[in-house]
Amino acid sequence: MLNVSRSAFYDWLSRPAKIISENELKLYRTAKRLFKRSRNSLGSRQLSKKLCEEGYIIGRYRTRSIMRKLGLVVTQRQAYTVTTKRKHSDSVADNVLSQNFNPAEPNQAWAGDVTYLRTNEGWMYLAIVMDLHSRRIIGWSISKRMTVSLVERALQVAITLRQPGCGVLFHSDRGSQYTSKQFQSLLTKSGMTPSMSSVGACLDNAVVERFFGSLKHEWLLNVVHLTRESMKQDVEEYIRYYNHERLHTTLGDLTPSNYEKLQSQVSSCA
User: Fold this and answer.
1) How far is Cα 15 from Cα 128, in angstroms, rounded to an integer?
2) Which residues, by range, are in coiled-coil regions (predicted)?
């Protein structure tokens, strides 16, 4: 049944069992917990960093070995698909951001976009606003309809949370929701400067697209949501995870919330 010889089986049976220390057992349990929390998305590099956060002294190669031993296999990322399209009667703004995704201060440059999410009750659409300084999601809205009101609500949440002054650069693609007179009027009223990606240039809003890719292909992949309400709750959970637990290499292996706290402390000491 096992496709091994009788002698090999009895040889294996007579070997002494390998004893695992308590610390190693705790390490394995922590690795499995962190990997499960990420929904099977942490590679060896990121998992080793999370383990170091937990107090373990461990490198990437040992982490990789542990992942093989525990059968922790990363879910592969899939391609991102563009959702919004421009209404040609609306005017568009220049690409003022010009792929400058690392502003020196918070509330200098925000970026937004819309993506679609599948449930058994039908599609849902998620609009987000990100502060590019910290990569933090500061506003979001989800609805079964992809309307101007969807992106307006996301921006209003961000404005309420941040209370920025005038001069914030808001970058988006050329989707009809963002080029509409209604949304552009909100930007003007809020003292914001619009910026829009070039036609078909997904890299012009790469940071936001990266967030959507992580949401859909690290968190939601192979998860079936029966209702729109369950999808909404899961998106809320991911945004909390993304802002407060997910490490970002661009931020020096900090979470967006911890990066903002650190920058605030540095500013207050200066």
Assistant:
1) 57
2) none
Quote the distance between the C-alpha of residue 162 and its chain's center. Answer: 20
Q: Which residue has the tokens 């091994």?
A: 4
Q: Is the Cβ–Cβ distance between 212 and 113 less than 8 Å? A: yes
Fold that domain 109-268 belongs to in CATH: Nucleotidyltransferase; domain 5 (3.30.420)
Are the C-beta atoms of residues 41 and 5 closer than 8 Å to each other?
no
Write the DSSP string, 21-78: PHHHHHHHHHHHHHHHHTTS---HHHHHHHHHHTT----HHHHHHHHHHHT--PPPP-
In the chain, what are the domain boundaries? 10-70, 109-268
Whole-structure pTM value:
0.78
160: helix, coil or strand?
helix
Q: How far apart are CA 62 and CA 44, in angstroms?
A: 9
Torsions phi, psi of 10, nearest 5? -70, -30
Query: How far, in Å, CA of 270 to CA of 232, rounded?
Result: 41
Residue 245: CB partners within 8 Å, gap ≥ 6? 37, 255
Q: Furthest-apart CA pair in the chain: how many Å?
A: 82
- For 8-47, the pLDDT digits (tens) are 777 767 776 667 788 888 888 999 999 888 888 888 898 9
